[in-house]
Amino acid sequence: MVRLSAPRAARALASCLLAWCLLASPAFGGPYEDARTAWYRADYARALQIVQPLALAGEARAQFELGCLYAAGQGVKQDDVQAARWFRRAADQGYADAQANLGFMLANGRGVRRNEAQALWWYRKAAAQEHAGARNLIGFMYATGQGVPRNDAMAVAWYRKAAMQGDADAQTNLGYMYDTGRGVRRSLAEALAWYRKAAEQGHAVAQFNLGSLHLMGEGVPRDEVAAATWFLEAAYQGHPAAMFNVGYMYATARGLPQDDEEAVAWYRDAAQAGDVRAMANLAFMYVHGLGTDHDTGEALHWYREAAGYGYAEAQYRLAEMFDLGLGVTPDARAAAHWYRLAAEQGHAEAQASLAGLYASGEGVERDDAEAVRWYRQAAAVGHAGAQLGLGFMYAQGRGTTQDVAAAQRLYELAAARLLALDASRDEDVLVAGRAAATVSDRFLTQMPPERQRPAGRRR
């Protein structure tokens, strides 16, 4: 299973400082309550009209809220320079939320010159006021070595402080540290407990991680139904890997009823969110008319999209379409190009197919030595077709010294491999790697919409 990096798994996740500044503080009526109401109604012009005079009059909370409006481009043109300026004014008055946001701007070079040391200084100022988000971000800096030497034990200590305050990001991150044994003795029971706390607050990464634990049977009995339940929770919030997993589970009846139409809908959502596996699987559904109309044009589009991101399986499938003329005019040169890109990433099917093109001289100049080289790479990982092809080259003495005995051994290996494949289970392609929650480029400026669970199919 692939373990996802934190940026890839969490970059679409957001909690929202704008919502925090307008909504989290106690309401006592008056202008801030009016601003809160206007923001809820998406009447950002009205919210701006309320907070701007107060900010100009020097009120720290209003300065912070005005900075949030500039950061989000709500009621005003989006402007990070202005956002940072207003955050600083409020931060200088000791307003903890503004100190945390100014730290974030400095850490990421948003509206100001990037300065991780200054970012940490402002985070610490906010943390001294028991600001949970700032404590979590200090933990993140220690976990990643940003602005300070990497120190997993210190990261755990800061994550724990914020997690004990109920911060869902910190709970997820602390769970991840227990999950991976970083800065603390590995404990799946502790990881499960912290993930669950965050998941029950609606944290998508924590929900995905819980699904992963159930899918793999780590820390809990293996339970694909429970895994699907948590993946669905994360998928409804737009978590790309969770959406892919839900699509795959519908397609293969893993924890969910078999339903190709649902699989296509989820694959499409995940593909549009940038998940390359979903792009390739959606293309496959179009090629075979599963859950949707047969459409080689759409298949070609999605294979191209995923191949452009460097996804080897999509590069191989795209090459295959050109090689076999599936929905396109056969083009051996294009096939060779895409086979090569996938082959160079170690894709055995692509290596075997590229070898075949070199052996026949289709799309490339015939080169038996190159054919043998690519056959040998694929054969070494047990690809039966490559073993047969390499055996043929040995038998004929093409690209290598003739060796009939070696050819026979390869033929026998290929036969045994083909028999084993008949009895084996399809490769499990579900994404089960866990990830931490906080990434350096995430900015908290927009409240996530409340999850909507559709009554019927998602379309």
As a percent range, the share of helical residues equals 55-70%
For the record, give the distance between the C-alpha atoms at the N and C termini, rounded to a whole number. Answer: 30 Å
Oligomerization status of the protein chains:
single chain
How big is the Rg?
A: 27 Å
Number of helices: 24
Order of helices and strands: HHHHHHHHHHHHHHHHHHHHHHHH
Shape: elongated
Describe the sheet with the most strands. none
Beta content comes to: under 5%
Number of strands: 0
Please mark out the parts with pLDDT under 50 across 5 or more consecutive residues, or reply none.
1-24, 423-428, 438-459
Structural class, by secondary structure, is mainly alpha
The chain-level mean pLDDT equals: 87
Describe the structure.
The chain is mainly alpha-helical. It is 65% helix and 0% strand. The protein has helices at 6-10, 17-24, 30-40, 44-56, 60-72, 80-92, 96-108, 116-127, 132-144, 152-164, 168-180, 188-199, 204-216, 224-235, 240-252, 260-272, 276-288, 296-308, 312-324, 332-343, 348-360, 368-380, 384-396, 404-423. α5 runs antiparallel to α6, α13 (204-216) runs antiparallel to α14 and α17 (276-288) runs antiparallel to α18 (296-308).
Q: How are the secondary structure elements laid out?
A:
Blueprint: H1 6-10, H2 17-24, H3 30-40, H4 44-56, H5 60-72, H6 80-92, H7 96-108, H8 116-127, H9 132-144, H10 152-164, H11 168-180, H12 188-199, H13 204-216, H14 224-235, H15 240-252, H16 260-272, H17 276-288, H18 296-308, H19 312-324, H20 332-343, H21 348-360, H22 368-380, H23 384-396, H24 404-423
Helix pairs in contact: 2-5, 3-4, 4-5, 5-6, 6-7, 7-8, 8-9, 9-10, 10-11, 11-12, 12-13, 13-14, 14-15, 15-16, 16-17, 17-18, 18-19, 19-20, 20-21, 21-22, 22-23, 23-24
